[in-house]
Amino acid sequence: MEFKKFKCCKNLEFKSYRCVICHGLYHNSCVEKRKNVSYLTGYDIYCSKECQDADIKKCDDYDELLIKIKELKDELMEKDILYEKLEKSSKEEKEELYTQIENISKEIIEKDRYIQRLKKNTKSFEDEVFEQEKSLTMLLIGKSETIKDLNNENNQIQCLKDKLHTALQEKEAQLEKVNANLTECININQQMVGAIKALEMDNKISERKIESLKLEIATYQKLKVNQGEGNKEMSDKEKVTENTEDNIYKKDKNIRKILILSDELGKGIGRELKKHCEESTMVQTIWKQGAHFDKVYRHGQRTPITHYANDPYSASEYWPVAPGQLTNTGKTQHFRLGRYTRERYNASLPSAYSSDFLHIQTTDVDRTHMSAQCNVLGLFPPTPTEQWNPDIAWSPIPIHPSDPNIILSLPKCEAYFEELNSVLVNETFYKDIDEEYRDLYAYLTEHSGENVTSVSGVSSIFDSLFIENEFGYTLPSWTEAVFPEPISTLAGYLYQSYGYSTKLARLSAGTFLNEVIEHFEKMRNNSSSAQFFRMYSAHDINIAQILSALGAYYEPHVPYFASTIYFELWKSFLGTYHVNVYYKQKEVIEKITPKGCLQFDCGLNNLKKQLSDVLIDINTKAKECVT
């Protein structure tokens, strides 16, 4: 049992008093003895005056606290009332404020999204700008190197010009001497001519004297005079005649000497003049030495491959050959093109075909095979030794199949068609075209029976109308609003798309141009390592793709039948090699300056550098075509 501790003494007593202030315990007996003890109820006491005063003070403080609590309660009630009023009055404002806050939150979210898009676009734009700056820097470096090369060539040309100027001055001095000698020779010749004329006059006079003397002799022979006198007189006459004939012979001999001298003098003057002319024209002919050629062309005229749904000429009875086949006009076009090529390069072409000189390739299509055969007949008509049948003016020349990885109307490449579709669908240029011609598409859909919704839908319609017009057929009246324009321009835009981007040009024409460059490099390094002339029989799309890769597809158009691109490799008098490119349509041939080349005569090395973004070999193309 635990005993309580008493504050008064150490006695143990269970009955006790407790002070309500200090909580001290006091025995009953001890409390009675203490002074200043105040009794409360039960056993509660104030053990001293101090405790009593403290309790009184505590009560006072408690009363004050109660008063303050009451005041605070009153104030709180007033505030609650005021809050209720404010809550009631601002409920609508709060709702409006909440709405505004919600709207602002939405705007903030949209702005955050917009900022994210801007950041993304900015990053892609920065990457694009960086790539462009990089490509421009490389281009500037290439331009600087090209300008440096051109400056070196210009310096060499200037030195050559100085040498040529000195040589021309020397030739002019020689010409002046020749002219002086010629003038002197002309004067001598004139004197000789005068002398010859005088001798001829003397000769005529002498001949007359001889004739008269002969008459006199005949007369004397007839006269019957004294035999002796007659003989003596005749003898005198005959002596005179003989002397006259000797003089004439001597004069004739002198005339012949003069004529021989004059002839030799004329020949000498001719040789000098010929020598001077040859030396003067040599400067003009040494600029280009040796030529190697590549040419690629579209096949000749064909029949339509397909017809639009409402085409009135879709039946086979309207066409001389099957769909897509070469017509007689197409054969003639290529025979004439071969003859044109013969006339253009006649000085560089052998008279007869040689496999070491010419290599012909064609895509595996009937019309390109036949076009190549007609073209090569005009280029190399059979020589007498090649004429194997007197009734047939033709000799077979091999036509080889082309590598489809080098040239094909449309490449077998998934990546190419994905890029082409992306260009037609996503490029702003083609979006604007489709928007501009939306009404025309609806018009074509209504009348042709085809569902035309974009520029790619006009191809078969244009092809049919164009060929039917070439054949002289009367086109339906509804076509007057669209043919030849604007549908021809729309078809040109479609052909422009086939090589619109660098990727499209690279995957379509890159391997072909790479083969041309490699062929020219082989000819430069060793002219016996490859054929001098290579020919490719292909399609209109190939012409458009190659022009696009060269940066020369200036005006959107569909290349006409037998359109041709010529590539020429020339060696300059400085020993450098440059390339010339020509584009021939119908009877018009124009010069092509490839992209990046500062002039028409584009150096072979420079051309390869400028086309580096599109040149591609077969193996690399195979990898890039895999999507």
List strands and helices in order, with pairings.
Layout: E1 16-19, E2 25-27, H1 28-33, E3 38-39, E4 44-46, H2 49-89, H3 91-222, H4 227-285, E5 288-298, H5 328-344, E6 358-362, H6 366-379, E7 400-401, H7 414-426, H8 428-436, H9 438-448, H10 459-470, H11 487-497, H12 502-525, E8 533-538, H13 540-549, E9 564-572, E10 577-585, E11 588-592, E12 602-603, H14 604-610, H15 618-624
Parallel strand pairs: 1-4, 5-8, 6-7, 6-8
Antiparallel strand pairs: 1-2, 3-4, 5-9, 9-10, 10-11, 10-12
Helix pairs in contact: 3-4, 5-6, 7-12, 12-13
List the keywords.
627 residues; Rossmann fold; eight-stranded mixed sheet; four-stranded mixed sheet; 15 helices; 59% helix; 10% strand
Helicity, as a percent range? 55-70%
Question: What's the Cα radius of gyration?
Answer: 58 Å
Helix segment count? 15
Strand content: 5-15%
What is the average of the pLDDT values? 80
Distance between the termini: 97 Å
Order of helices and strands: EEHEEHHHEHEHEHHHHHHEHEEEEHH
| Low-pLDDT residue spans | 224-235, 272-289
Structural class: alpha/beta
Tell me about this structure:
- This protein is an alpha/beta fold and 627 residues long.
- Among the domains are: 1-89, no CATH class; 93-285; 288-321 and 498-526 and 534-624, Rossmann fold (3-Layer(aba) Sandwich).
- Helices cover 59% and strands 10% of the residues.
- It has helices spanning 28-33, 49-89, 91-222, 227-285, 328-344, 366-379, 414-426, 428-436, 438-448, 459-470, 487-497, 502-525, 540-549, 604-610, 618-624, and strands spanning 16-19, 25-27, 38-39, 44-46, 288-298, 358-362, 400-401, 533-538, 564-572, 577-585, 588-592, 602-603.
- Strands 5, 6, 7, 8, 9, 10, 11 and 12 form an eight-stranded mixed beta sheet that branches.
